[in-house]
């Protein structure tokens, strides 16, 4: 078993989304193995699915006057993915009171084996790049529904 990346901050359980992918030719090396640098893109696929599902896209934040630069990105590589292999990316958004997004990711092979796992931390800053001390109002509303258990996916 693996040690969790984030400790429970006293909030609700993490939100989880899953997206399905297939390894493309441009993502592999000469041996047909996914190049390690491509995993950041796979994690971003999970992050974007989370945004679409819950109204937390980059454009939603930008319209609210905030952007989300990556502060930290970490990937543990466990098993290789191969050309044309189908896999899924699980993305979990962990509760945090600060103006940040803590995301955890699992890249799973179709047989359930863990190919990689990782996390990202994104800080909320205003459009001039200054760190936000409070989250935008739309995100506060999102958190209220999350904490109350009344959060509904978009669409």
How does this model look, in words?
A hairpin with a 5-residue loop joins strand 4 (86-94) and strand 5. The chain contains 3 helices and 7 strands. The protein has helices spanning 39-54, 58-63, 137-148; strands at 15-22, 66-67, 70-77, 86-94, 100-109, 114-123, 125-126. It has a single domain, classed as Thiol Ester Dehydrase, Chain A, CATH 3.10.129. With 155 residues, it is of the alpha+beta class. The model has no long low-confidence stretch (mean pLDDT 96). The N and C termini lie far apart (35 Å).
The description of the largest β-sheet is: 5 strands, antiparallel
- State mean pLDDT (0 to 100 scale): 96
- The total count of strands amounts to 7
Global morphology: globular
Can you tell me the CATH architecture? Roll
Instruction: Kindly report how far apart the N and C termini lie.
Output: 35 Å
Low-confidence regions: none
- Helical residue percent? 10-25%
Instruction: Please compute the radius of gyration using only Cα atoms.
Output: 16 Å
- Fraction in beta strands: 25-35%
Count, helices: 3
Structural class: alpha+beta
Query: Would you state the CATH class?
Result: Alpha Beta
Number of domains: 1
List SSEs in N-to-C order. EHHEEEEEEH
Strand order, biggest sheet?
1-4-5-6-3
What is the CATH third-level topology name?
Thiol Ester Dehydrase, Chain A
CATH H-level superfamily title: Hotdog Thioesterase
Offer a quick outline of the entry:
22% of the residues lie in helices and 32% in strands. The chain is of the alpha+beta class and 155 residues long. The strands form 2 sheets. Strands 1-4-5-6-3 form a 5-stranded antiparallel beta sheet, covered by helices on one side.
